[in-house]
Specification:
By secondary structure, the chain is of the alpha/beta class. It is about 50% helix and about 15% strand. It contains ten helices and six strands; from the N terminus they run βαβαβαβαβαβααααα. Strands 2-1-3-4-5-6 form a six-stranded parallel sheet, with helices on both faces. Helix 4 crosses helix 6, helix 8 packs across helix 9 and helix 9 packs across helix 10. The radius of gyration is 18 Å and the shape is elongated.
Length: about 200
């Protein structure tokens, strides 16, 4: 049996996926979590063969958890399953060591096949998304620019952002200005929106 850990914050979606995967003769969902912070401890306890992770979770994101699993449980294959087929997310998932990246609107048979293929050592990537990622190019933002934009998401002031990321207001302004330039936008909120749409945040 292929043991699967399922991380999805929407209870109904998580239950439906577990039920559908459970109908496969060779797949058993051994653990389910709805919070990103629960992924690593649950995986260390359940020892799944494959972890099926959503990206946007409360606590740690699925991308951060994928990197945790690569370090702490290297035998566990990670498949990212998301609503958001963004090229930047795909790049970050591959950098985090994920074996695959699929969008949620595909048939469950494809998901079961992807689990088997990932366990066999294959990379499983949605073809349309792979093409989009190649044409989109790499993330132009530095880690610090991403940190500052992430702190600006809720319309925070420069002083609030500076306090949150432990930088001076002048340095925050410089990073915001650089991020606005790199995203070819007019202000920080447009830069946040562009970075999110591309999966850079």
């Amino acid at each position: 049996m292929i043991k699967v850990l399922l991380a999805e914050d929407q209870g109904m979606m998580r239950g439906a996926l577990a039920l559908l995967l459970g109908l496969e003769e060779d797949i058993e969902v051994v653990a389910q979590v709805g919070d990103g912070d629960e992924i690593l401890p649950t995986a260390l306890a359940a020892r799944p063969d494959v972890a099926l992770l959503d990206i946007e979770l409360p606590g740690r994101s699925g991308l951060d958890a994928a990197a945790d699993l690569r370090t702490r449980l290297p035998g566990c294959r990670v498949l990212i399953l998301t609503t958001f087929g963004r090229p930047g997310y795909l790049r970050r998932a591959m950098e985090a060591g994920a074996s695959g990246f699929l969008v949620k609107d595909g048939p469950v048979e494809d998901l079961a096949a992807a689990i088997r293929r990932a366990l066999a050592g294959e990379r499983v990537i949605d073809p349309a998304l792979a093409a989009a990622a190649l044409s989109a190019g790499p993330n132009p933002l530095t880690q610090r620019e991403r940190d500052v934009l992430a702190a600006a998401v809720d319309g925070a002031t420069v002083a609030d952002i500076a306090a949150k990321v432990h930088l001076s207001p002048a340095t925050v302004r410089n990073y915001l200005s650089a991020a606005i330039g790199k995203t070819r936008t007019r202000n920080r909120m447009e830069a946040v929106r562009a970075a999110r749409q591309n999966g850079w945040l």
